[in-house]
Model the fold of this input.
Amino acid sequence: MFPKIIKLILAFFTLAFSIYQFYEGAIGNGIFLLLLCGIFILLYYKNEFILLAFFQLRKQNFEGTLKWLNRISNPEQNLVTKQQGYFNYLHGIILSQTNLTKAEKYFKKALELGMSMDTDLAMANLSLAGIYMQKRRKREATLLINKAKKLDSQGMLTGQIKEMKQQMKRI
Done:
């Protein structure tokens, strides 16, 4: 993994060399270098190991997800704030299978740092509400479910929110 400053330096130099290639008349090389510059900028905002961890999570491979997350050394220094949010969010999902107390800590940290999509924030709120429900903390769970409902503007989580509300009535 490259530190984020090196990604920006590589993007700058490939952009400069791309402009030079356009000036020299090598249009194909210039276009290719612009695409390469775009990849460096993309990887500045989207960490490559977090992307690979999400792919493993899609396959329900929690060990693989944890393996990719463990490759990130010193996440506070090497990741942008929103990437740190996703880092903690993924750890929370993995730990929610085994250790609810640690998962709660990671979900709180992910919500504190923020994530780029409202749906992800809604899902983190919903997961934390589920943890609170299992710990019989109904008031906090209700607040988080309502917050998740507000954040879910596209209605992707409406079924899960309704199910959580029905479970809240049973408590």
